[in-house]
Amino acid sequence: MIRLNKLLSTYGIASRRAADTLITQGRVEVNGHVVTELGAKADPERDHIKVDGRRLKAAPSKRYLLMNKPVGVVSTRSDPQRRETVIDLLEAAGVSGYFYPVGRLDYDSEGLIILTNDGEFAERVSHPRYELERTYEALVEGVPDEHDLERLRRGIALDGERTQPATVRLRRVVQGKRGSQALLEIAIHEGRNRQVRRMADAIAHPVARLRRVRIGPISDARLQPGAVRDLTDTELRNLAEPGRRRRPGV
């Protein structure tokens, strides 16, 4: 017998935490009976298990995908406003199966995002204790001075709590339609809602364009917007190695 949340995670339906939500919402059935008790168990070899009325089939082969999400795409499985989602992009690329994104990337941001059908992997990589560094290129209005950059590095107070120290570099200054703009490289270990944008707002240099260019050790400058590929075995090993969670010197 296996706990239902672990079983649903193994079958690629959801992470354990998300599976708990499915259970408490009454969306899981075992042998024709709705199960709402957390901690309930089932035997996938003998029991008939359904989620949202669909019976679980054989556990799928685990896949780990890297996508370059364009601006204007939602990083969720579905959207009540019927906007295009990362799952729509997967289907357009011919990738079938039940996948979900690891973490989020704002609707108006672009860049790398991982999708998988492995709930255990998603849970581990997205957990705050994992401290998986995410690196962004932020084109901001105006040119922050060294004092502003140091504020970002030390941490900015958001919602009454200071952000963790960040690595911030001024890459270059460019001329935009509204004057000078600065391209910053910002590496953070947290995943607060719209964190990089809010940090930039706090120093009065709002973001004009935001792109995630690295997740832990994973980067791919050749992956086109909307394109998707499988992570390599080497990339997966690097994600799993504690020493690779942060880049050397960071």
Low-confidence stretches: 243-250
Rg measurement, Å? 20 Å
Estimate the mean pLDDT confidence: 90
Number of helices: 7
C-alpha end-to-end distance: 44 Å
What fraction strand?
25-35%
Which structural class should the secondary elements be placed in?
Answer: alpha+beta
Helix content: 10-25%
Q: Give me the count of strands.
A: 16
Tell me what you see in this structure.
With 250 residues, the protein is of the alpha+beta class. Helix content is 22%, strand content 30%. The chain has seven helices and 16 strands. Strands 7, 8, 9, 10, 13, 14, 15 and 16 form an eight-stranded mixed beta sheet that branches. A four-stranded antiparallel beta sheet has the order 3-2-5-6, with no helix packed on it. Strands 1-4 form a two-stranded antiparallel ribbon. Strand 13 (167-176) and strand 14 (179-188) form a beta hairpin. Helix 1 (4-10) crosses helix 2 (16-24). The radius of gyration is 20 Å and the shape is elongated. The termini are far apart.
Give the key terms.
four-stranded antiparallel sheet, alpha+beta, about 250 residues
Briefly characterize the structure.
With 250 residues, the chain is α+β, with helices and mostly antiparallel strands. The chain has helices at residues 4-10, 16-24, 86-92, 119-126, 146-154, 195-202, 233-240, and strands at residues 2-3, 28-30, 33-34, 41-42, 49-51, 54-55, 64-69, 100-102, 110-116, 134-141, 157-158, 161-162, 167-176, 179-188, 207-215, 228-230.
